[in-house]
Amino acid sequence: MPVTKKSYASYPHYLEVGPYKFQVVHNFTYLGSDVYCNDIGAEIQKCILAANRCFYGLRKHLRSHFTSKNTKILMYKVLIRHVLTYASETWTLSKANEQRLSLFERKVLRCIFGVKQENEIWQKRYNYELYEIFNDSNIVNYIKFKRLAWAGHLMHTNDNRTLKKLFNTKLDGVRRVGRPKVRWEDGADQDMRILEVKNWKKIALNRDEWTKLLKKARAHQGLLGQ
After folding, report:
1. Where are the domains of the chain?
2. What is the β-pairing status of strands 27-30 and 20-23?
3. pLDDT at position 112, please?
4. Contact 1, 22 (CB under 8 A)
5. What's the predicted TM-score (pTM) here?
6. Is 70 exceeded by the pLDDT of residue 173?
7. What dihedral angle (degrees, nearest 10) is formed by the CA atoms of 133, 86, 39, 150?
8. Rounded distance, CA 17 to CA 38, Å?
């Protein structure tokens, strides 16, 4: 059971549920993903570090003139981006985390596309130039699309599954004073408002309608477009 560091002192070291005994911890690892108490920043940093190691392992090939740009882009999408976005369907992104992810992606793209020459002067490419050549969704939009796809999968899940029970559970108590942290469902709701969809949970139950909605999301300029 994860708890915040501030509240750790007020909790017992172990919780007993029937014959089972659980240790109270700040975080734990489940299926390769670190679970924190409503703080995804540390998990995102872990993924960035893992992707960075992957990037430096491939940097020689990404900078090589003997490797085509299409091959380099494919290496990024298949190898580096998958490491970077592991379990990102469950992330709730803040602006700071979006900036960290985008900064890393642009570092990789600059390595792939290199510098440009204008008037016999070599200079770095602007951010918009990188994405024009990349011709695909940036990392933040890519994660948002994965989150929407996961939202549809979640709604299709049987009500008896633990995943669905946790999603439908309404916790007791009052949230802290001040601006509350954004929850995963809040992020999904915000994306749906941009798409002008009011009841996405009902639409998700219809697979055909949900597939159409995902196609709309992929082409939407304000959410997942270029």
Report:
1. 1-37, 40-136, 145-219
2. unpaired
3. 95
4. yes
5. 0.78
6. no
7. 90
8. 23
